[in-house]
Amino acid sequence: MQTVFDVLKFISVNHQEVESHQVLVTDAVGKPNGLLTDLLHDLINNALLFVTLRDVSSATELIEHLRTHTPLPADVLAEYAKILTEDCYGLNFAPQKGQIELIVHR
Predict the structure, then answer these.
(1) Is the CB of residue 25 less than 8 Å from the CB of residue 36?
(2) Is 25 in contact with 33 (CB distance < 8 Å)?
(3) Which domain of life is it from (predicted)?
């Protein structure tokens, strides 16, 4: 099973890493999960300023890099670890919205 980290690492839009406004976390029927989406947007907007996903091989390595090289508090890093290790059951591309939906079972 792939995780949110795996998906973020390997998907791109126009050969660039995804931007926060391009991704949404949903359940299997497409209902958005606002809490996880907000957390993912925060991760992309804040944490990924400090590291490029292609430079790390796992969510654990990413969190360790952030712990070492940023002032992010431990509780924030723990929340980032939760979203990064969430199982991703599929993707739904919604070109009319300009979004990629990451499907999780929560």
Answers:
(1) yes
(2) yes
(3) Bacteria
Range of the domain at 31: 2-103
**Exposure of 97 by Cβ count < 10 A (0-12 exposed, 13-18 middle, 19+ buried)?**
exposed
Sequence-ordered list of residues with C-beta below 8 angstroms from that of 97, at least 6 positions apart, any chain: none
DSSP 18: P
Instruction: Report H helices in the chain.
Output: 4-10, 34-46, 59-69, 74-84
The 8-class DSSP code of residue 35 comes to H
pTM here is 0.90
3 state DSSP class of 92: strand
Domains in the chain: how many in total?
Answer: 1
